[in-house]
From TrEMBL:
It comes from Bacteroides acidifaciens. This is alpha-L-rhamnosidase. Residues 311-644 form the Alpha-L-rhamnosidase six-hairpin glycosidase domain. One of its GO terms (biological process) is carbohydrate metabolic process. The keyword Amino-acid biosynthesis does not apply. Residues 648-718 form the Alpha-L-rhamnosidase C-terminal domain.
Length: 749
């Protein structure tokens, strides 16, 4: 696909050269590149001291007294945005300068690398091609671009990056973890000598500071911290499951003093760095046996997050329940980022690949940061967990990384690992795979390919009570083979991107064979649905959801499969709900998708809010998983489904060179959103009343949008910025002319 994409980009560039005289945006002054990224990071000059953001001081950072960003690889990538409200603003060439000194860069001297004028529309994932970079050195860079009329921009502002002392062939840089001081939103005197502070939302906190007063040295305050409270308003001492609660005795000294609560280490796989210290999650703080006055300013917590851009996204609609669900999921990305990678919650603090997939997609939809998802995915390649599907899902997260960033380095570096993650070594005579309980797991060479030393098992769903009766044994399973098929399809895409022509042919042929065998083994012709395995007639929701979402259902059978899926409701966990929603919106049933996300039943995201959590849960509620925790990123599926499917904005070509706008509002009257992309933000506003659908969209520079709208009966009139346009009608949808940068008012009636 690299050859294909490059040639497509060249054609893409040449097409704009040809129409430059007609496009108003191309005849104007070219926009200066902004939002410069090195190794996908926007703020390579970010520095902190003990987690708190501080002004940039490179000598201090190099001495190790500041936490800072260090570029870890020998060949970093570069990227930028082209911001413009003008129509048709496209890049056709660029020039990057990298200098060893700031003064040299000011003189336009790229003594480390001068790319020269490169004919290309590419504005992300551009690999460094200069002299070998030295370790522990500062480098300065900038870029200028040209449009289709060969009008060049001014150079961008300079950006700077610091290399690590020992540069590697491939490694993903990250920001240091960040502390933010937060005060309660309210403090209440709930009963005599008992105060409760509510911080509004739960967060993982490194320190808690209390400024308290006492008339003697004999007073002792009992401090309670927790994620849950009681109906009386106190901190819940017995919240159940893995919902966090801690108790500390605090002897007071005479007078007014500030005390720090030192949190106890609670285990977990991923350890906190020393500059942060141990953290615990809590929303509420209760001061028991305190006779003084507890004001808001006298209680401060140091919440720990991976740096996060609150303004990168927004969503609001005519449905208040959906808005609350969105807020829950958006905040969940921030709250669960406290280790600098996706984990499964506070109970284990273990990175699971299933959490990575949902966390990755949701993070892409709420923030314009790509390194935490990439690091999480890459870590799991060499630190796999026990479920079969989690091994397989690494191929999916690898493809998403490339699709959203346009940066090939990760899939190139881990290509052999990704091939193994398909689990082709477990293939049987008919081309399908069986993993659980097979003797092949006893082969150390087979297991070493996937970095495993222990056995792996099919999970289907978790907890086991969420499997809708799925028959889990050592048979050939539909869910496992649906994943297998999806991996083969994606491996053909990855091979194409890397230019491995023979592998493209191999994986396409293999995928076609698997699809044929899949239909023969699992399709129930009589009942028109998919069975769980080759040894049962039972047909779970899961067997049909994964078959549909991964493209295994024949067109003529999709209606019957969707009918069966609808009949099952939410008969799955919060994890499989991700794929259920993808399948439903893929089948263009926006009304049903909306009804699942704005449900107020027990098995809903609103129930998480109702039970008291401000972060997505591990399960639908406490009764569905007795040991669940209240800080699990895999419960945040609507955070990406709302943006990708309901709002309908998602990439079509890697690096957002082309993207889709395909709204499925269901019964919503209106919705508006800001969707972050590596090209810049896409903003949309939708409204629908009667037979009229209206939208306003702002498209960033150097990309193009495919706009697909639901047709209104037989006759449809579409106007763009007041001018009627022709739209292609196909299968009940209207395909509008491709739109490029600018602001557009679109009306369909």
């Amino acid at each position: 696909m690299e050859y294909f994409v490059k040639n497509r980009l060249v054609r893409y560039v040449l097409s704009f050269v040809g129409i430059g005289c007609c496009a108003s945006g191309l005849s104007q002054e070219m926009s200066v590149p902004t939002q410069l990224r090195c190794d996908l990071l926007l703020q390579t000059d970010y520095q902190s001291a003990y987690g708190f953001v501080v002004p940039t001081e490179w000598k201090v950072a190099q001495s190790g007294k500041h936490e800072c960003v260090r570029i870890l690889t020998q060949t970093p990538s570069f990227g930028w945005n082209i911001s413009s409200d003008e129509p048709e603003v496209m890049q056709t060439a660029y020039q990057i300068l990298v200098a060893s000194t700031e003064d040299g860069l000011k003189e336009n001297l790229g003594d480390v690398w001068d790319s020269g004028k490169v004919i290309s529309a590419q504005s992300s994932g551009i690999l460094y091609g200069g002299k070998p970079l030295a370790g522990d050195r500062l480098y300065f860079w900038k870029v200028r671009i040209w449009n289709g009329n060969q009008v060049e921009s001014a150079y961008s502002d300079a950006a700077v990056f610091l290399t690590d002392k020992n540069l590697q062939k491939h490694a993903t840089a990250r920001y240091p973890l960040q502390k933010q001081q937060e005060m309660p939103v309210c403090v209440r005197n709930v009963k005599d000598n008992t105060w409760v502070a509510d911080f509004g939302k739960a967060a993982f906190c490194g320190q808690l500071y209390l400024t308290l007063s006492s008339d003697s040295d004999r007073d002792t305050v009992v401090v309670h911290t927790g994620e849950a409270n009681t109906p009386e308003g106190t901190v819940n001492r017995k919240p159940g499951g893995s919902i966090r609660y801690c108790r500390y005795r605090l002897p007071l000294r005479s007078g007014t003093h500030t005390y720090q609560i030192q949190f106890r280490h609670d285990g977990g796989s991923i350890k906190m760095p020393s500059y942060i210290g141990e953290v615990v999650p809590f929303r509420y703080v209760e001061l028991e046996n305190y006779g003084g006055n507890a004001e808001q300013a006298l209680l401060v917590r140091n919440a720990v997050y991976y740096p996060y851009n609150e303004k990168a996204s927004y969503f609001e609609s005519s449905d208040s329940i959906l808005n609350q669900v969105w807020d829950l999921c958006k905040y969940s990305v921030k709250a669960t980022s406290f280790t600098g990678q996706f984990i499964d919650g506070d109970r284990e603090r273990l990175p699971y690949e299933g959490d990575n997939y949902i966390g990755q997609l949701t993070a892409y939809c709420v923030d314009d940061e790509y390194n935490l998802p990439r690091y999480s995915h890459e870590y799991s390649i060499t630190h796999p967990t026990w479920p079969t599907e989690w091994i397989q899902i690494s191929v999916m997260t690898a493809w998403l990384d490339y699709l959203y960033t346009g940066d090939l380095r990760s899939i190139r570096y881990y290509y052999e690992d990704l091939k193994a993650k398909c689990l082709m070594d477990f293939e049987t005579e008919n081309g399908l795979i069986i993993v659980s309980g097979t003797d092949k797991q006893k082969n150390p060479q087979v297991m070493a390919k996937i970095h495993h030393k222990r056995s792996i098992e099919d999970i289907v769903d978790w907890p086991i009570t969420e499997r809708d009766g799925y028959v889990v044994d050592n048979s050939c399973k539909s869910v496992i083979n649906a994943y297998y098929y999806r991996d083969l399809v994606l491996m053909s895409n990855i091979a194409e991107a890397l230019g491995y022509v023979d592998d493209v042919t191999f994986y396409k042929k293999k995928a076609a064979h698997v699809k044929k065998s899949f239909q023969q083994v699992f399709w129930d012709r009589k009942n028109k649905r998919y069975r769980d395995s080759d040894k049962t007639e039972h047909a779970s929701l899961h067997a049909n959801v994964f078959s549909l979402v991964f493209g295994l259902v024949n067109e003529k059978d999709k209606a019957s499969v969707m009918e069966y899926i609808r009949s099952k409701g939410m008969a799955c966990s919060v994890y499989v709900a991700q794929f259920l929603l993808e399948a439903v919106y893929g089948a263009e049933d926006g009304n049903y998708g909306l009804s699942l996300m704005n449900s107020t039943g027990d098995r809903s995201w609103y129930n998480m809010i109702r039970e008291g959590s401000t972060v997505s849960m591990e399960a639908w509620g406490n009764k569905y998983k007795p040991n669940q925790d209240w800080n699990h990123i895999w419960g945040a599926a609507p955070g990406n489904i709302i943006m990708r499917e309901l709002i309908g904005v998602k990439p079509v070509l890697p690096g957002w060179n082309r993207f889709q706008i395909k709204p499925q509002l269901g019964e919503l009257e209106w919705a508006k959103a800001k969707v972050p992309t590596i090209k810049g933000a896409v903003t949309v506003k939708y409204s629908q009343a009667g037979t009229t659908f209206s939208m306003e969209v702002k498209i960033p520079g150097n990309t193009e949008a495919e706009v697909i709208l639901p047709a209104r009966k037989d006759k449809n009139r579409v106007s763009i910025n007041g001018k009627q346009v022709k739209a292609r009608l196909k299968e009940g949808k209207l395909f509008l002319p491709v739109l490029r940068s600018g602001i557009y008012q679109i009306v369909l009636n």
